[in-house]
Amino acid sequence: MPVTIDYSKLRILADSDTRQWWEAARQRKYLVRRCNRCGHKWFPPNIPACSRCASLDVEWFETAGKGVIHSYVVVVQPIVGAFIGAVPYVVAVIELDDCREEDGTVTRVAGVLTNDEAEVAIGLPCAVVFEETNDPKIVMPRWQITGPAETTWKFNE
Amino acid sequence: MGALTDKYCIVGVGETQQMRPSNRTTLSMACEAISNAMADAGLKPSDIDGMTSYQVADSTSSAHVATALGMRLNYCLDIFGGGSSTEALVAHAVGLIEAGYAKTIVCFRSMNGRSGRRMGGQIPGGPIPAAMAADDNQFNMGWGWTTPAQRFGMSAMRYLRDTGCTTKAFAEIAVAHRYHATLNPKAIYRSPITIEDHQRSRWVVKPFRLLDCCTETDVSAAIIVTSRERAYDLRHPPVFIMGGYARTMTESPQWNYSRPVIHYVAGNYGWKRAFGMAGISHRDVDFVSCYDAFTFTTLIQLEANGFCGHGEAGEFVKGGRLQIDHELPSNLSGGHLSEGYTHGVQMVIENVRQLRHRADDACPGWREGKHTYDRAKGCRQVKKARICCGMAWGWENMASCLILRGMAA
Hints:
Chain A is mainly β. Chain A contains one helix and nine strands, in the order E-H-E-E-E-E-E-E-E-E. Chain A has one helix at residues 19-26, and strands at 10-12, 30-35, 41-42, 58-63, 66-75, 89-96, 108-112, 125-132, 139-145. Chain A starts with 9 loop residues before the first strand and ends in a 12-residue tail after the last strand. The mean pLDDT of chain A is 94. In chain B, 30% of the residues lie in helices and 20% in strands. A nine-stranded mixed beta sheet of chain B has the order 3-2-4-8-1-9-12-11-10, sandwiched between helices. In chain B, strands 6-7 form a two-stranded antiparallel sheet.
């Protein structure tokens, strides 16, 4: 069953560090930050300097929006009003395929899956999808499982 | 040993009742908790010349309390902080007194954590009609991922996957801390629970059930720190500050989830400093406290602080090991899971009472340190209470520790 989120109960207040990220999402692009000096990439985008070399000279990197589920939770009791009708929904941390760096550094992002609890497992591949909201300025990235994987792990309680 | 080991002491502890709701202001509760701590120490307001507190924009200030209680302070500071702040403010007090900025410092927390602002953004009267997602919240509220249960659950889920641990280990912690609450007349939840009760309780956010989650209460609690020389003149045997670490962080403290192992938490970076400063080993520790916002946070802190290896805590806690009269009693007041929620202060308070041999239990002579050690009659005092290790948690990414000893150690 698709997860329904009532975006009328949510206001995203973009700021000078994040406005371009939300603007890119509106254009169906998933960005992470990248350092112009050393190439390090990171999320979330409201962190404005490079944690590897402390450079403030940072740009955006457009990812392919594909990754692997690193962990997840299933929210059964909602807190934020927008999600009251969406429970149970799955929030996942996703390791991006094109943000693995030579020294082993990875970039992981988070978001709500379009899939429900029965389908989710750690290790499954997924891809970003973009969902329109009632706020024309905000398009919300969600994540969709794209196929099976050889090694997965699932919480079965 | 650290340069300041045993030079400073905790001499007074006090709190209000755990309330739901208090129908009181945080200022009123703070005045009561601090008055109780002063009475406990045998101090009067004019003896206190330093005050510190922590809050998350939900509480009163040192200036208000000092005005109300008629104190003229040489030092005051109110910091923004949550779990792990109590131990950090005690460390701070030690440094301030050593440097001469103040002589006797009270540290407090006061919060309407149930009837006022609740963790995760909820306000009284139910969920927020239109949530405002600014700053960090742009990148978690938008995906319904704001509460500590939802955030820590992410690390807990990966932990279960990586270690093979099951939620039965979480249950061991819920059961142990609840058992201690049955011996604590102040505790909110005093009915014993079983592993099965835990496993049958409703889901909040998988992998956490209701009995994995702490209480929410309205409460204030306070701790008084002074020098060893002054401590000897006060009402109780002093409790000596041996060592610790204070709000120690992992790398990337604001975004845990890109770190190589998301359940490798901040305590890992601190415990050698704490034990080195205290000049003790884990074998010297008679009991512990763990910041039990969740059962999982207790589990992971035992690993992070070296009481067992990484991934071994599930085995370590089996068979009631954390219960009183067993190997490593944890959270003897019942902790956040069962006594009430003070954002960390109550663990230090209980550790002080235990080290004085004055746990405020059902024993008629507890005020004189006379205990029966008969659990069936409600005695909560640990028999061998000489050294304790208090472990505090902010997020995965921030932790504190406070190693204390009583006179007998």
